[in-house]
Structures are given as structure tokens and as C-alpha cells.
Amino acid sequence: MNAASKRVAIITGAANGIGLATAQEFASAGYHVVAWDLAEEAGKALVAEISEAGGTAEFQSVDVSKSEAVDAAVAKIIEAHGRVDVLVNNAGILRDGQLVKAKGGEVVKIMSDEQFDAVISVNLKGVFNCTRAVTPHMIAAKYGRILNASSVVGLYGNFGQTNYVAAKSGVIGMTKVWARELGRYGITVNAVAPGFIATAMVKQMPDHVLQGMVSHTPVGRIGEPVDIARAYVFLASENSGFISGTTLSVDGGMVVGS
Ligand code: NAI
Question: Which of 27, 90, 197, 239 allows an S-S link to 50, with CB 3.0 to 4.6 Å?
């Protein structure tokens, strides 16, 4: 099948980790993948890999926190393909730190404005920018699937992640609003809340924290990027048209606080 007749799926943050696996799974499922990322070399390598495996994909260097860049990239996709069927808002960053860290009664560190704003601008505003850009085209087509990366910490909170949790909880809220606003146009909007997945982001965490995560996970392992990718493909399918406004936990049954 050539790219023109395929459903088009934009995957943000597609050059690494969960986004990379998601791009590969969507390509295998027959979508034309548009991979967005800042990491150009890795993004182009992904496109080559998908082509070699018999799929179709293209890379666009897009910073999701910049609405003008997002709008311009969507315009190019519409010009080339005339459609955007799926958006996976996956791009995300971490800038962890306690709100106020004290030792012996003395404040030693605070979460800076830069730390807070950087995470909000990618993980929350980025989701807003990308969704706003594709939605008019999905409304015109009376079809769309919008999938947002939340996190278990967006549901339960987490030590040292004021900024990240604010964004990931906010994503769940926006998912519910957009499900209400867009359902009438055949557009479903859902979030996925991954547990701890073996990517570079999680590998930055200390070993004892990782082991702690495994001990709280009934299936007894850290998740793999493909575990999340398959959830996105499931929610994006035409058969999932009656699922909207929900947050699907994909976390191996993680029991927080146990
Ligand atoms: P990762 O760090 O491996 O990959 C993130 C990708 O996003 C990178 O390729 C990076 O270049 C790209 N990116 C960062 N800022 C960007 C921007 N402004 N514009 C475009 N692309 C940008 O991350 P990972 O672990 O694959 O996470 C993917 C998503 O899943 C994130 O939203 C993360 O918060 C979420 N998540 C991850 C979990 C995990 O355990 N790895 C757990 C829960 C949620």
C-alpha cells in the first residue's frame, strides 16, 4: 500500500524510548508514520529502519513546545497527505527536584522557575499545541484518534516531581475535556498512564529506586517501550471508537504504596 492511501499517525518524541517503539508499532500496523522529535539523526535512522521493514515513515524536526513550528509541520502533512488520523502526544522531559529541599532546618535547594516552566512547556503545553493543530483536520474528516502520554505519577503523585506531576495530571484533565468537545466529530481522546518503562528517562533513576518499583509491580518486571506502544495502537484502532476520555494504566498492575 502506498503512503497516500494509508492512515497518517503523528508520533511526537519518536526518536527514542516509548515514542520509537510506538512509531515502529504503528508502521507495522499499516499507518504512515510522521515522526516528530528534536533529535534529527535518531529520527532519520528510525525512518530508514521502518522503510527497511516495509513500512512508510517520514521525519520532521519539531519542538512541540513551539506552537508555530507545530502548526507549520501539520500544514506540511496536510499538503502532502491530506489527512491526520492519529496523534500520539508522547514527547516528554524530566527536570526533577523537590519543591523545597531542606537539611538541618536550612533550605539547600528549591525547584526553580526554569525547572517548572520547562516541563510544563513540553509535557503540558506541547500536548495542547499539537492537539490544537491537528483537530481542525480531524473535525473536517469526522475521524480522529488523540492519545496522550500521562503517567502513573499523574494519578498518584511522586516525590520530587511537582512539575512533572502537574503536567501529567493536567494531561488527564485535558483528555477529559477534549473527549467531551470532540466526540461529536468522531474523534476519541484517551490518555495512557505508563508505569515504569525501561527507557533512558527511567534509567537515570538510582538502582534502589528501580528495584523498589519492580517490588511494587505484580507482574514482576519493569515495562518495555513496546508494552506502551501496543496500548496506543489498540486505542487508535477503528474498533476502539467507543473508548474516549479514559486513562488506561499500563503498569504491570503496580500497586502504589504497597
Ligand atoms: P525518552 O526521554 O526516552 O524520549 C522522549 C523523546 O521526546 C526524546 O526523543 C526527546 O528528544 C523528545 N523530546 C523531548 N522534548 C521534545 C520537544 N520539545 N519536542 C519534540 N520532542 C521532544 O522518554 P520516554 O521514557 O520514552 O517517555 C515518553 C513519554 O512517556 C513521556 O511523555 C514520558 O513522560 C512518558 N512516560 C514515561 C515513563 C517511563 O517510565 N519511561 C513512565 C510514564 C510516562
Answer: 27
* Enclosing domain of residue 202: 3-257
Q: What is the mean pLDDT of the chain?
A: 95
Look up 164 and say whether it is catalytic.
yes
Confidence of residue 201 (pLDDT cuts 50, 70, 90): low
Q: How many domains are contained in the chain?
A: 1
Residue 158's CB is within 10 A of a number of other CB atoms, namely 16
Please, are residues 122 and 163 in contact by the beta-carbon 8 Å criterion? no
Pocket lining for ligand 1, CB < 6 angstroms: 12-13, 15-19, 36-39, 62-65, 90-93, 122, 126, 149, 151, 194, 196-197, 199-202
Which position among 31, 143, 156, 164 bears the catalytic label?
164
